[in-house]
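ugh finaly. both done.
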Amino acid sequence: MSGSLLIATGADAVYFPMVQELLASVRAHAPGPVGFGVIDGGLTAEQRDWLAAEGAVLAAPPALAAAARAVRSRPALAVNLGKLWLDRLFPGYATLLWLDADTWVQQWDAVALLTGAAETGALAVVPGAGRYWKRQIDVRWIAGGMGGIGQVRSFNFKNAWHARLPLAVCRDLGTRALLNAGAFALPAAAAHWERLRHWQARILRHGKPFTSDQLAMAMVVYIEDLPAELLPTNCNYVSPRRVDAARGLLLEHYYPYRPVGIVHLAAEKRMRFDPEAKVTLLGLDGRQWQASLRHGWFQGDLSAAREADAGRRD
């Protein structure tokens, strides 16, 4: 199957249930058929069969010699490295949208924003900055900050330094927002892909494989100045959160409390492995609600809580 849009993700056997939930969320909200691709980072035969029966396209991750040792000790890392190879792994689609396995779609308008921005020829991605970041940049103050002396400890600076990129590049990137590669879209024909892989190869010589995708994006956007559209946090939302319990929707924390478009569980390690783990959510009604943030589980927890409330009133 080929077409205008493919939503791609990837997982090993442990993360497979979240891939199922992501696919369910896509099908619940997509206005029509959408291609769905999965990078196989260590799925079982039964899991691959399930995905094939659901019409998903499976692809093996690229074999990158520079990361072979890291992948042997952590096989699922191959999925993260494979993000920058989507145009080759899933040919035949005009636009490729990556969503990490620990994401799910709550409102299709976020998908439409990502794909619409990509259709301009740009890399569509959400920056790690703005009103949901308590600190826009980390600084280690030296000698108590006397004289204003400090050491920048930002994501971009640290990872560029580990990758042994030139000092001028480290300094340039140091005060710029990271680009969250958990959700991004890009046309299959964009020049970005080859440049992303160029920088991935350069970074993997000395840098950290797990963060190489986001650092490569920073190089392409900030240093090479290839077209990019930086999208609202709603398109890749991590935290904090509110809830509209009556409608069963996760909301942005700050006014006007818009419904979250794409939910990202990057900050919920326990919940990624245990869907029954719950968090406390502040409701628009002023109450606190306990719910999982996993797709399906979230809606079920809120439904059960509403039913319990109705039973108490009766």
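ok and the 2nd:
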Amino acid sequence: MKKLSAFAVIFVILLSLVFSGCGYEYAELNLRAEYARDLEGTTLTVYNWGEYISDGSDGMLDVNREFEKLTGIKVNYLTFESNETMYSQVKNGGVNYDIIIPSDYMIQRLLNEEMLAKIDTSKLSNYDLIDEQYKNVYFDPNNEYTVPYNVGMVGIIYNSSVIKDIEHSWKVLWDKKYKDMALNFNNPRDAFMTAQMILGFDLNSANKSDWDKAAELLKEGKPNLQAYVMDEVYGKMETGEAAIAPYYAGDYLTMAETNPDLKFFYPQEGTNIFIDSVCILKNAQNYDAALMYINFLLEPDIATANAEYIGYASPNTAVIDNENYYYYGNEILYPKKENMPKVQYYHDIDDEIRSYYETLWIDVKLD
């Protein structure tokens, strides 16, 4: 009888959770658009950066779960840690992705290789929420292939309990005072950027000698590094295993929630600015579901949940203008004009130059 009673109690609890969950989709979300269930039972495959969507952790909204509940479409959600990894997977096939969320220069490359489908923005009732400054950008001048998702810049994170006074320069990654305490990017474009900024080079240089000099500088700094990292930076910086690292501003804000000793600056030489955007691949299996998903991401409640979880600057005016938004007016994400660092976008580079610097990068890593 005790076992039966316990089972009955558990069943009631589970039943109540199921029914309370059924009401959550409508009770908690204030949606601008209407979402039909015509595609119920189909699957949408989304390929995004790691830690790049509100996923239900820390009591926050689970965006994919809410989309599934609302539409009946199953979201097959996969992640990557760099644009280059994403490109390789998409190019080589194996998985038929519907939606990808790359950065600007990689979007330009994908367009040059005719891998993206046009996005019918007339079917996106929330498209009007995109800030005009993020439309008609260099990689999609006619707003045909992309919908902005996040905006960011790269800076340097350091542990103020270990490093008391620091020069606001990329040179600190080479400073012997921080030997075995420093990290650098484990992807060629960002790693080369740290050296190119010191050397005063164009981040999109077509001059091989510029890339040679940047590679030599990276080699000189390699003995100073503890490791090359991507998402591993979270654990290393949050726990104090490392004390200084270049990374994306939005991720710094996430790390600082865990370790308040972490501080941040934009180096005086300048830095990279980027726009990550939602794209639909030309070989997408579920184009209509992809449009529905993109429109859902633009919903004010969804865009705000993502912006607060990810910590990047939002291109969505419903987020930017919301005084209840956690990062409203944050100077790291939304610096005033007088505090804006010097910035450069990455552009897609000629195949010969790209192959050249990728080979140099292998040499840097193996040296």
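summary for the 2nd one i guess: The radius of gyration is 22 Å.
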